[in-house]
Design brief:
two-stranded antiparallel ribbon; Paired amphipathic helix 2 (pah2 repeat); globular
Length: 99
């Protein structure tokens, strides 16, 4: 995962992402879409809507999955912030597709 300082939460679990990981991930998304500012803006809007509870966790995941379609590394990075049971599984589908 991007960033460091993660710690394990328990037996059989994955490392828990921290705030530094979140900022590093956001920077990675911004760098990737530096030529597609509307897409980056849409991503930030989804995150803000989730934080403000205007959308639920499942809605957030679905919107992020659509926004980042074809960007396997970014979807994989997003999965680091999700419980294992909610990870986006088929992120390899659509690889190489543009938006």
């Amino acid at each position: 995962m991007v960033g460091g300082g993660s710690k394990h939460v328990g037996e059989g679990s994955k490392p828990k992402a921290n705030i530094d990981d979140a900022y590093a991930y956001l920077r990675a998304v911004r760098v990737r879409f530096h030529n597609d500012k509307p897409l980056f803006h849409d991503f930030v809007t989804v995150m803000n809507n989730f934080k403000a509870r205007r959308i639920d966790r499942n809605g957030c995941i679905k919107e992020v999955e659509q926004l980042l379609k074809g960007h396997r590394d970014l979807i994989s990075g997003f999965n680091a912030f999700l419980p294992k049971c909610l990870e986006i599984k088929n992120y390899y589908i659509g690889a190489g597709e543009g938006r």
